[in-house]
Design brief:
This protein has seven helices and five strands; from the N terminus they run αβαβαββααβαα. It is of the alpha/beta class.
């Protein structure tokens, strides 16, 4: 009889996946002045088709935290505490579209994004919610500090390269990795910077599609 402990597949300590499905080979570090904070829903942590961990491994100026509801002090620190020794406090911006359903959900209208902030992308901290639309809406609903952040909507988002793995409800809906790359390119004005990461992402998607078809 095989014990439970021995039956558990060993996981890569870096990407947290089983060694047979390790995605570290696809990690492609890119330079990006905008900081990125990824808040991941707990049910996404071991999702085989998830892209947040690959994104985090590829963005040196990123941090990742897992939770559905965050304590007020803990979330405040995630939004405002420096990632490094720079003196300027970050300006947190939530990557999330305005929605006509916000009022129905009891969410207040978010504050307007100050155009002056966009002139200094190195001071921005892009906050990304990693989860399905339903999960991300719930995270927003349960964490008032996120509701108080100005939002960044994507302007002319690209077509998703992810459709073979996860069905989107709307054509503009992207994976966490794709949406974040598009937002960083929009803020920094250098779309070509993220081309190597998106090409690596294509390889990850192709491999996942192969496994999914077996």
């Amino acid at each position: 009889m095989v014990s439970t402990a021995s039956a558990v597949r060993p996981r890569c300590p870096r990407c947290l996946r089983a060694h047979s499905a390790c995605l570290c080979r696809w990690a492609t570090p890119v330079a990006h002045p905008v900081e990125v904070l990824i808040l991941q829903h707990p049910l996404e942590v071991h999702e085989a088709k998830g892209t947040a961990r690959l994104l985090h491994l590829s963005l040196p100026r990123s941090r990742m935290a897992v939770g559905e509801t965050f304590g007020a002090e803990a979330l405040h620190a995630l939004l405002t505490a420096p990632f490094d020794t720079r003196s300027a406090a970050p300006r947190a911006v939530l990557l999330y579209p305005a929605s006509p359903h916000d009022a129905a959900l009891g969410l207040p209208a978010p504050p307007a994004l100050d155009p002056a902030w966009l002139q200094a992308p190195e001071r921005l901290r892009l906050v990304v919610l990693d989860g399905t639309w339903r999960k991300s809406r719930k995270m927003l609903h349960l964490n008032p500090a996120l509701q108080r952040l100005p939002r960044l909507p994507l302007v002319h988002p690209p077509a998703s390269r992810y459709a073979t793995l996860r069905k989107a409800h709307q054509p503009h809906q992207l994976s966490t990795l794709e949406a974040t790359c598009a937002a960083l390119a929009q803020l920094e004005g250098h779309r070509e910077t993220f081309a190597p990461l998106l090409r690596a992402f294509d390889g990850f998607v192709a491999l996942q599609a192969t496994w999914q078809s077996r």
